[in-house]
Design a protein that fits this description.
Radius of gyration: 21 Å
Structural class: mainly alpha
Distance between the termini: 66 Å
Helix content: over 70%
Number of strands: 2
Strand content: under 5%
Number of helices: 10
Largest sheet: 2 strands, antiparallel
């Protein structure tokens, strides 16, 4: 191989790595728009608008959209581009059933593995969610709720469980807010969070398993109830 050919090959590899990194950044940005509700179920992905908003070309947008389609967040329509996925109640129920089983296991692992400091952080998040719930501040509550559940799964110290959890929850972001919007649901949801932290602080594996499963079951009831 000549020096010139080798140089071109190296530059191409660097370019590919940069493109991949940019695509990953764009993918995370679009995912955050879906989580925050800026992009809602059924919304069409406008590549040109997103490229302008994120300051990139349309190439990384397309790559990111393909990744998000594989993750179950977007769907493609022939000759019409990409849309934020609209999930049916049956599809959501299936995910909630699996999430409930994972939640029970998560509770047991946290009891065994989490530090006292981590449990204290969970308790502090519950206190902050109480304030948001009493103020009917949905955006603040939702953000804290995500932080609380992220910390729960991290505290299990099981990467395989965390990967499965995130795959499920990323899809449920498509309409999880729906179950919190109805009057009083923020307070009910956080009462369940408190039951979880109480069980964890007591290092009671059975109670933690039960509280985690009940919270997921309660979330399904809130989410599937008529608006």
């Amino acid at each position: 191989m000549s020096k010139e050919t080798s140089k071109n090959s190296t530059l191409e590899q660097i370019s590919q790595r940069r493109s991949k990194t940019l695509s990953t950044i764009v993918c995370e940005a679009i995912e955050e728009m879906i989580i925050s509700g800026e992009l809602e179920a059924g919304d069409r992905i406008n590549e040109s608008a997103l490229a302008g908003k994120l300051g990139v070309s349309r190439g990384p947008i397309r790559e990111a959209c393909r990744s998000l389609e594989q993750a179950g967040l977007l769907v493609s329509a022939t000759n019409h581009g990409m849309y934020v996925r609209e999930m049916t109640l049956d599809e959501a129920r299936d995910l909630y059933e699996v999430r409930g089983a994972l939640a029970g296991l998560t509770g047991r692992l946290i009891v065994e593995r989490a530090s006292d400091g981590t449990l204290k952080k969970l308790q502090e998040l519950v206190e902050k969610m109480d304030v948001a719930a009493n103020d009917s501040d949905l955006s603040r509550y939702y953000s804290l709720n995500l932080e609380f559940h992220d910390l729960l799964v991290e505290a299990s110290k099981n990467p395989a469980l965390e990967q499965s959890y995130r795959w499920i929850v990323n899809q449920l972001h498509l309409f999880r807010r729906r179950g919190l919007v109805q009057k009083g649901n923020l307070l009910v949801s956080n009462k369940e969070h408190r039951a979880i932290t109480d069980a964890l602080l007591s290092r009671d594996a059975d109670a933690a398993d039960s509280a985690m499963r009940q919270h997921v079951a309660g979330g399904w009831v809130r989410m599937s109830a008529p608006s």
